[in-house]
Amino acid sequence: MPEPNAARLRGLREEDVAACCAIAVRAWTPIHEMLRKDYGDGLYRAALGGWQGRKAAEVEDFCRRYPGNVVVTELGGEVVGFATFHVRAGGVIGVLGNNAVDPRHQGKGIGVRQIAHAVDELTRRGVHYVEVITGLDQGHAPALAMYEKLGFVQRRRTTLLYKDVGGGATRTPRR
């Protein structure tokens, strides 16, 4: 297997879109396994069921509409990660969107390189701040650590609340 340092960042090509969609689904699967446990099956199905198709469609739509706002990481000729980004209206804030590294290649610094590249590109485009949203749960812990390593600082904590009003069998999420 090639060394992570051999990974090459480059712009998105049309033939990369399907790989980015598949990587997104593989990378978010462990997060969704944790969410299913936290939410319970009924609420999970109601709130997040079918997420794979929606995530793939979201990534595909962004890639096709804004190909200049996607960086991919190639390793040994294979796309192993991607990051999407854009400049929010007004031009002062850049936003990191969907980004993922294939689980087979996580923990090798590829995500850090992708995000640093996206931040550099947003800086070249004149933004003053870059924002990213991630979860505070165990499933998102590696992403949170990566963002913090790159100097991102948490500015706000939020939570998502549900109330069972229809008799569904749900578990109370862990705290």
Task: Pick out its properties.
Aminopeptidase; alpha+beta
By CATH, the superfamily comes out as Gcn5-related N-acetyltransferase (GNAT)
Q: How many runs of DSSP E, i.e. beta strands?
A: 5
Distance between the termini: 40 Å
Shape verdict: globular
Count up the domains: 1
Question: What is the compact description of this entry?
Answer:
By secondary structure, the chain is of the alpha+beta class.
Tell me what the structure shows:
- By secondary structure, this protein is of the alpha+beta class.
- The chain has one domain: Gcn5-related N-acetyltransferase (GNAT) (Aminopeptidase).
- Helix content is 40%, strand content 18%.
- It has 5 helices and 5 strands, in the order βαααβββαβα.
- The chain has a 5-stranded mixed β-sheet, with helices on both faces.
- A hairpin with a 5-residue loop joins strand 3 and strand 4 (93-101).
- Helix 1 (17-39) packs antiparallel against helix 2 (41-48) and helix 1 (17-39) runs antiparallel to helix 3.
- The longest helix has 23 residues, at 17-39.
- It is globular and about 50 Å long.
- The relative contact order is 0.17.
- The mean pLDDT is 92.
